[in-house]
Amino acid sequence: MIDHDxxxxxxxxxxxxxxIEGHLVFALKNEGxxxxxxxxxxxxxxxxxxKEIVAATPTGSYARRIWFLYEWLTSDKIDxxxxxxxxxxxxxxxxxxxxxxxxxLPRYRVVNNLPGTKDFCPMVFYTDTLDGxxxxxxxxxxxxxxxxxxxxxxxxxxxxLLLKDSKSSYAIExxxxxxxxxxxxxxxxxEAGRQxxxxxxxxxxxxxxxxxxRFVKLGYRDEGGFVGERDFSTQSPLPDHISAKHEDLxxxxxxxxxxxxxxxxxxxxxxxxxxxxxxxxYIHPFEDGNGRLHRFLIHHALALRGFNPPGIVFxxxxxxxxxxxxxxxxxxxxxxxxxxxxEWRETPEHNVEVTNETADLYRYFDATPHAExxxxxxxxxxxxxxxxxAQFLQNYDRFDEAVQNIVDMPExxxxxxxxxxxxxxxKFSERARSKEFAALSEAETKAIEKMYSDIFGx
Length: 458
What we know:
This protein is mainly alpha-helical. It folds into 3 domains: 2-112, no CATH class; 128-379, Orthogonal Bundle (Fic-like fold); 407-456. Helices cover 55% and strands 7% of the residues. The protein has 19 helices and 9 strands. β6 and β7 form a beta hairpin.
């Protein structure tokens, strides 16, 4: 068996038996759980082959797992007695995929350690990348960074990072809203994790995001939705992603809400945040506001699990904005795979109407690339952005004090002075010297330039 460049090549001796049991056992042993594929298989085979597998090896660990997964995914109960064994086997292999401690189910002698419910259960594989990030203990690093910064500076840093995240979240959507909307959404982000998720809470958050609802329908969609372009001449939809059917929104959102609460609290905080937030954006329950709410859910999941220190919001949206092309690729990692399985037709309003059953595409997806990407963004905010912004404010305070020692100047002008120097490589521009700061002497100008270079030179 050889692992290379994302591929696993297995020798002939690993070839599974040419039967349903052979292939299911091979998959469970080597490939982990793909709940969407498993459900499609079970719907195609029906219960008889599963009953035969369990009846032939009632004590077998793989037979019991297959039996449990069949009933869990299909809600079709098979007439079988409890296995004549006392040991329990885990439904999810904890060496392959993230899972919870779970509940013992005597009917199968299986521990249901699936990370979600059958209404919403993305899966994440353990990878070297995720193991590396988890080993960094980023939450502890953030606390160490904060402990080294004076409290007053940290408070200002926190306020700046909050505003930065709110502004970046709108920028990702290509929007430049007025400052009051940015601040209002920033306040909502700062309160992430305090309110339990619910249908009403999602509606409250959407109202904050949208602000002016005269041209946007608030609440869950009552028609189809898609992300993509339109044909310039006909306005026909050219979707890159098709949202969940509006008829499926209530159960899908109910599953997501359950996952986002107590059910997934045992999971790694960043992994849980990725599963929750990207699951939401794929469902796309609203006409507008989905992207910003998707990123709010990242903050919600992290805060709920105590990952970030109290009062601190990591500017994850700013990190996403810096890596926007990677972000789009991550979104497409599932959308591009799901799109061929969605059958749709164009409506008279040039929207999409899905004509087949698609809910499972949004319930069960591989969130591994999403978790890796989010961890990368969180690591950047903790390792780079947080200390950088704190250091900048401390340097600015030094700059402020040094200017005041050279010349008595109001805060408004010191801030303007800093901006001029920042934009002109630490030198006074001709305009600054002839207009706003014409009153400064040549010696004072040189002293301020040297002081700026000493503090911000790097």
